[in-house]
């Protein structure tokens, strides 16, 4: 059964970064009840775009900033195990409810910059509409890269409201990873990028 965990949420986080993250966490907590209604359609477009470019047939999937768990139903049948990580306890509670529908999806509360996983454990790492919340998105990308297998894939999206195209490309290129696919579609409010380590 999926359980909520409270793991290492503050470890390695500086007080200043934590102040900003706590604000973000609070903002998502207070809007958690309306999250699905507001964002489900938009997020589904990003998932569809992802599957056009990335074949997800991996053993272990990490959904970073999983929110209410909208992505779980898209990957649960394709993976042996899916782990969702988020800072917002209220959204995680909703994600935990989603997770119960599958036998292989688990959620835990943790900071995307300091995740309680060993290096290289996930075959696929997904971060939909998360980077705009992070004080140092480049640091977050490093952490995503740390936990993915050498042969694994990372999919991240960049909210266009928060990142200009050149800025987002610089971020991706600066990560040292290879851009395997990139989409900038008018109907989607994020750039969608697939990276390989
Ligand atoms: C726009 S929502 C996207 C949720 C989900 N990925 C989806 O596709 O619906 C951004 C999510 O990032 C989470 N988040 C923000 N800062 C975070 C952090 N430092 N660590 C982990 N999750 C974070 C928020 O709580 C929220 O659930």
Task: Report on the architecture of this protein.
This protein has 197 residues and is α/β, with parallel strands linked by helices. The chain has a single domain (15-196), classed as 3-Layer(aba) Sandwich (Rossmann fold). Helices cover 37% and strands 24% of the residues. The chain has six helices and seven strands; from the N terminus they run ααβαβαββαβαββ. It has a seven-stranded mixed β-sheet with strand order 3-2-1-4-5-7-6. Strand 1 (60-64), helix 3 and strand 2 (81-86) form a beta-alpha-beta unit. The longest helix is centred in the N-terminal third of the chain and has 19 residues, at 35-53. The chain is globular. Mean pLDDT is 92; it is low at 1-9. S-adenosylmethionine is lined by residues 21, 24, 28, 39, 43, 65-67, 70-71, 85-88, 91, 111-112, 128-130, 133-134.
């Amino acid at each position: 059964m999926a359980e909520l965990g409270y793991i290492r949420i503050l470890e390695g986080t500086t007080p200043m970064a934590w102040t900003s993250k706590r604000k973000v966490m609070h903002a998502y907590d207070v809007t958690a009840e309306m999250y699905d209604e507001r964002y489900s359609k938009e997020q589904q477009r990003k998932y569809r775009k992802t599957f056009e470019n990335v074949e997800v047939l991996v053993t272990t999937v990490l959904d970073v900033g999983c929110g209410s768990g909208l992505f779980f139903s898209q990957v649960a049948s394709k993976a042996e195990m899916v782990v969702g990580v988020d800072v917002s306890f209220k959204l995680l509670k909703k994600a935990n409810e989603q997770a119960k529908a599958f036998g292989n999806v688990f959620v835990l509360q943790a900071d995307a910059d300091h995740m309680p996983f060993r290096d290289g454990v996930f075959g696929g790492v997904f971060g939909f509409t998360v980077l705009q919340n992070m004080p140092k998105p480049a640091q977050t990308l490093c952490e995503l890269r740390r936990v993915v297998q050498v042969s694994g894939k990372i999919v991240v999206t960049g909210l266009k409201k928060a990142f200009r195209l050149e800025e987002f490309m610089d971020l991706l290129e600066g990560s040292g990873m290879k851009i395997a696919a990139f989409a900038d579609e008018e109907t989607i409010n994020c750039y969608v990028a697939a990276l390989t380590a």
